[in-house]
Write a structure and sequence with these properties.
Helix content: 40-55%
Shape: globular
Number of strands: 7
CATH superfamily: Glycerol-3-phosphate (1)-acyltransferase
Radius of gyration: 16 Å
Low-confidence stretches: none
Strand order of the largest sheet: 1-7-6-2-5-3-4
Distance between the termini: 35 Å
Order of helices and strands: HEEHEHEHEHEHEH
CATH class: Alpha Beta
Number of helices: 7
Mean pLDDT: 84
CATH architecture: 3-Layer(aba) Sandwich
Strand content: 15-25%
Length: 195
């Protein structure tokens, strides 16, 4: 389903919106890893997946999206898994840790929601990375925010940054998690400024 969806959606969006430009693809590490991205529109989910093809992304998504059965079926087939953003339970860690252990790529939007404003980053991506020992690949999306803008064929860019790595046996205390989360924010800011 993921492969079929990729080919269909990629063809349609290329016809409507033009080509995708991928910058710093050499920064992409070997799997497993966590890819984190700014979240300004539904398009960043799609174009981030295009940028990492043929490696599928297993996206962490808010559980509210899984309440309608047809949408739940589709999201599950597209490798998404639910998480309760307000009261994250053990599954918030268990599912991504299992995926990473099986050499998969996990996608997380650390702002937790779509926004075009500066927003604080949640600590989940860093916590999972530290517990699993994998690196974090930061990315930003620059391009259309709406379908109308897509039809105007504005430039579409996904830009990767330097992976954030973690030393073996690093202490997963709040101070270290906050420090690495701040490092992630700085990389996002640098990628945004590099036009």
């Amino acid at each position: 389903m993921y492969s079929f969806g990729y080919r269909v959606v990629r063809t349609i969006l290329t016809i409507l919106g033009g080509k995708l430009k991928i910058e710093n693809k050499n920064k992409i590490p070997s799997s497993p890893y966590i890819v984190v991205c700014t979240h300004t529109t539904w398009f960043d989910i799609i174009y981030l997946a295009f940028s990492l093809w043929p490696m599928p992304i297993h996206y962490m998504a808010k559980q509210e999206l899984f309440t309608f059965k047809p949408i739940k079926y589709l999201l599950t087939k597209l490798n998404a898994f639910p998480v309760n953003r307000d009261n994250p339970g053990p599954s918030s860690l268990k599912i991504p840790l299992k995926l990473l252990k099986n050499n998969k790529v996990v996608g997380i939007f650390p702002t937790g929601t779509r926004t075009t404003e500066q927003a604080s980053l949640k600590r989940g991506a860093v916590t999972i990375a530290m517990k699993s020992g994998v690196s974090i690949l930061p990315a930003i999306y620059k391009g259309p925010l709406t379908f109308k803008e897509l039809l105007q064929r504005k430039e579409i860019v996904v830009r990767f940054g330097e992976p954030i790595t973690f030393e073996q046996g690093i202490n997963t205390n709040k101070e270290t998690i906050d420090q690495k989360t701040q490092e992630m924010k700085q990389i996002f800011d640098e990628l945004e400024a590099n036009n």
